[in-house]
Request: fold
Amino acid sequence: VDFTFEVTTLAAGARNRNRSRARIRVYGFVTTSPNAVVEPIHPKAMPVILLTEEEREIRMGTFIFEARSAEREPGMDIDKTIEPLLKRLRISANLNTEDERAIDKLPITIKRVRGGEPIISCGDRPSACFLVVEGFVLRSKIVADGRRQILAFHQPGDIPDLQGLFLHVMDHDVSALGDAVLAVIPHSPLEELIGKRPNIAKALWRDTLTDAAIFREWICNVGQRSASSRLAHLILEIYTRLQAIGLTNGLSFKFPATQEIFAEAIGTSSVHANRVIQELRAQGVLDFARGAINILDEQKLRTQADFDSLYLHLDPSL
Amino acid sequence: MRFYFDVQDDHYSARDSEGVALPSVQAARKQANNIITSIARDLFDADGSQVAVTVRNDEDNLFVLTVTLSFKEFTSPEDTAPADPFASGK
Reply:
């Protein structure tokens, strides 16, 4: 049965800033829309009783809320969860220690999503942003005849729906590409932080401007380049952004996209994307295997891609 | 219904082993149009001149769609453009 539900955490003070390694228990329960019996008494929701182990796994296993302080290692100043974001902001903006500390203090909850699962949809009014901690997410839009255009891929450290802070209704969809871990940050403390710390406001502004620069590059890609250049360009973009935060292994990196996903990102049919992939393979430029991409001939790939990393603005002096 | 799109052009030939689930032959026709025009765009830039997409279901070959780029240079003053460039053959 498909129903909407929420997990309510009952533990007070789960975000204990105290450095002790105390384990804090967090209890949760699942609610759903009320049935005819419950509705007259409680119109908003009723609890769900999970009878089997399998139901528990499905309903509780996909949405796990963790208290961050419980994960903290002694002597570790910056939380692992927020580390990719800081790494990224450090590369492209100037933050001081106090700024970093203030970001680390943001109240967050961890959410795990499965591959393909929607995160926010067009028309939603989100009250929180999310930071990608592990895995990848994608932004997309569906056109009238049902075809989907992928607009952007996001990696650990990105906040794909930062725009929701100011643009209150979502104008596109965000979903997970492969299983992912997200950190949910409510809008109000983030707004407060921006008001108090101009460096952070600037860094996030720069971040959304860079986002726009990436969209401009994607317009050039989809509008003017050949399909093989588009794919080569996309691969180099992902590689360059992952490398900047240390998530590549030599010329290899994890990226669990299927042929269909690549097709939707470069604006071709899946059959055409397959033709391009086979060509790049045959030329010894790239190899795709089980959710990982291996660049075999970087020079050839760059030539093919017409790639200049300037638009990624990975250096604060540029 | 599952449809398979085999591509053949000047540089490349591939049999579709995965296929796509589509509601009708008409939808498959539309899909084949998309495939062939996007491949043709790249191929003609790379000096190719012909693409064919053969569409099958699990039992039979259904239809073949082809796109050919033809080129004719005017070499002498007597060469003129035909009144109707799309008129077939003779």
The beta strands of chain B are 2-9, 13-14, 20-21, 50-56, 61-68.
